[in-house]
Amino acid sequence: MTASLGRGLLHLAAAVDLADTYRPEPYAELVRLAERGALDFVTLGDSFARPGPDALAVLAHVAPLTARVGLVPTVTTTHTEPFHVQAAVASLDWVSRGRAGWRPEVSTGEGEARLFGRREAAHAHHLWQEATEVAEVSRRLWDSWEDDAEIRSVATGRFVDRAKLHHVDFQGASFSVKGPSIVPRPPQGHPVIVVDATEPAARDTAARHAEVALIRAVGPEQSEELGGELRAAAAAHGRDPDGLRVLAALTVDLGEGERAAEPGHGGGGPRPSPRGPLYRGGPVDLADLLATWHGRGAVDGFHLTPLEPRRDLERLVNGTVPLLQHRALFRTFYPGSTLREHLGLARPANRYAPGVPS
Predict the structure, then answer these.
(1) Residue 69: is its pLDDT beyond 70?
(2) Which pLDDT tens digit goes with each residue over 219-269?
């Protein structure tokens, strides 16, 4: 799958953030709605800078209530222990039976640093370097159990083959991890890493580790340029750029009626806004916009943030998605069961398995 993906199916994801909502049921309602629309995954934001429920815990609760849609919480890598981060994400992959991803984020504020009292606030560039190392050690820890390490033999009383557990012995700039993990290798091997590559400091992390990169652009030309830069950077780090899915991030306001489409856009958008590129219009013109950008090979798909979560996600699923399906641009059902399968990503080989290059 390459940058000229226009002839294939596009990928769709949506945010399910809800302000001032602490009960899990409203989140579950939105995630089930997204699954009804066969979306690839949903994201749930999180931050130490504002009150709100723990995104990973909420989606772990939602996981047994859903069957196919991918679940991607934001996980802040600043002030948290990398060993605990990877174990929690691996646990989400087990609870969801292979539908987990995670979106690393950093915390730069003094107020957040005082919540923990371990270190002073730091510049975003330094913290994203740390996030890069967290992503790297997480992958090593997920591999620290070979796929067949568990024996579970009642006859012999052996649960695990210790020869198939591995110490990662990772030394980073601000932490070290010995391993192995306390969680067996996740069903997907590695849960999918989603990086918002909007900020320059995050782009190296995206190039090195992201399997899904989110970009913000107000036109297909800008999307194509940003996506090309990310793929080139991934190749420079020795990665296959075809293993990176680039999604354009748009805020969508579907509360008004259809408007006359503008060339290359639709419904009077997207346009710059404090929240990033904003589309304002109806579901039909939104489908035209998504089809146009994708058809030009500008992006692999879209990550959409509903301005009004319940209203706009419902209009997306009931209006825009059927139009894209009618044009054979989006799936009508999930052909697989894991997030990697939704995204067309292979399950990684375990680096410690015999015959696998380290």
Answers:
(1) yes
(2) 999 999 999 999 999 999 999 999 999 999 999 999 865 554 444 445 556
Q: Assign 3-state DSSP to the chain and report helix, strand, coil percentages, each to 5.
A: 40, 20, 45
**pLDDT for position 258:** 52
Name residue 247's beta-bridge partners. 214, 301
Residues 309, 303 contacting (CB under 8 angstroms): no
Compute, in degrees rounded to 10, the torsion defined by CA atoms 160, 166, 168, 169. 110
20-31 burial, b at 16+ Cβ within 10 Å, e below that, comes to eeeebeebbbbb
pLDDT at 261: 43
SS (H, E, C) 17-83: CCCCCCCHHHHHHHHHHHHHCCCCEEEECCCCCCCCCCHHHHHHHHHHHCCCCEEEEEEECCCCCHH
3-state secondary structure of 92: helix
What is residue 266's DSSP assignment? B
Residue with tokens 């990503």: 345
pLDDT at position 4 over 70: no
Read off the tokens for 148.
Answer: 């067949």
pTM of the entire predicted model:
0.93
Structure tokens at 180: 């192995």
On whether the CB atoms of residues 249 and 214 are closer than 8 A, the answer is: yes
Are residues 304 and 252 in contact, defined by beta-carbon separation less than 8 angstroms? yes
Across the chain, how many H-helices and E-strands are there? 11, 13
Element at 141 (helix H, strand E): helix 124-143
Segment holding 124, helix H or strand E = helix 124-143
